[in-house]
Amino acid sequence: MNLKLIAKNPTARHNYDIKDTIEAGIVLFGTEIKSIRQSKVNLKDTYAIIKNGECFVYGMHISPYEQGNIFNKDPLRTKKLLLSKKEILKLSNLIKQQGLCLIPLSLYFKGSFVKLELGIGKGKKLYDKREDIAKKDAQMKIRKAMKDRIVSLFHCFFIMVFYCTFTKYILFLVSALKTVFPTFSTFITSSVSNSFLIDDTE
């Protein structure tokens, strides 16, 4: 089934160590769906909790639909997530036993249905965030070095191609001149050869 991304949580993986993910449906009103189709939704600072055997997401901002009028809902209203009882029980146990939390990662269309990708993870400490930043910086430097190396190799390749082509052209020209002006063949051949040879004494 085709997936169409609507929005991503820009800080989720930076602030949390995501150990697993789960897909959930979400209860929405018509005007909210119309706003979502226009990508007018923000997942930053969102979180989900399990309460009374049900799962809810908080902080998800869906902008009011321009033509919704009285049918528009509170942009930050609490929204119920659709999960099976088995899934909710599993998540509840993970939260209680391992101290994990539920973080919305992305919102997307799966066919004609809106789905929310929930991350199951634990908040990162400051040194974990610094380590992630250092890793990203190192990866960027490696990619840049590889790019510069490739550009340098292509540059050398084109120089070699140009030099070989120029040399062949000169030799062809010498051959033609030898045919047309045989009296000057010895002088021309000697001059061209000397320009391309390296003195062994250097």
Give an overview in words.
By secondary structure, the chain is an alpha+beta fold. The chain has two domains: 3-124, Small protein B (Small Protein B, Chain: A); 130-196. 46% of the residues lie in helices and 28% in strands. The protein is elongated, with a radius of gyration of 34 Å. It starts with a strand and ends in a 6-residue tail after the last helix. 16% of the residues are buried. The model has no long low-confidence stretch (mean pLDDT 82).
Key features?
single chain, 202 residues, alpha+beta, Small Protein B, Chain: A, seven-stranded antiparallel sheet, two-stranded antiparallel sheet, 5 helices, 46% helix
Short description:
The chain is an alpha+beta fold.
Question: What is the typical, i.e. mean, pLDDT?
Answer: 82
Task: Compute the number of helices.
Answer: 5
Question: Which parts are unreliable, with pLDDT below 50 for 5 consecutive residues or more?
Answer: none
- As a whole number of angstroms, the C-alpha radius of gyration is 34 Å
> Termini, distance in Å?
71 Å
CATH architecture descriptor of the largest domain: Beta Barrel
Q: CATH-wise, what's the superfamily of the largest domain?
A: Small protein B
Task: Please list the strands of the largest sheet in the order they lie side by side.
Answer: 1-8-9-2-7-5-4
What's the shape?
elongated
How many DSSP-defined strands?
A: 9
| SSE series | EHEHEEEEEHEEHH
Write the layout of secondary structure elements.
Layout: E1 3-8, H1 12-15, E2 16-26, H2 30-37, E3 41-42, E4 47-51, E5 54-58, E6 61-62, E7 79-82, H3 85-98, E8 101-110, E9 113-123, H4 126-180, H5 185-196
Antiparallel strand pairs: 1-8, 2-7, 2-9, 3-6, 4-5, 5-7, 8-9
Helix pairs in contact: 4-5
